[in-house]
Amino acid sequence: xxxxxRGLMAVESLSGMTTLNAFRASWQVRCINxxxxxxxVIRLNRLEPGLPSIAPSRKxxxxx
Length: 64
Hints:
Layout lengths: L8 E9 L5 E9 L5 E3 H8 L17
Antiparallel strand pairs: 1-2, 2-3
């Protein structure tokens, strides 16, 4: 079930050449209704998102 629209998710296979000229196949799911795409990395990150990223503080220079 799609996380965006609750539509039907279909599995599709992607295959192609990588930068090292090695054949690589991967799987992803795509929503038939809205086109939302999820692969294994996205699904794993949603299960365990890990540590939140902290943006570096920025100093704003004020000219007078």
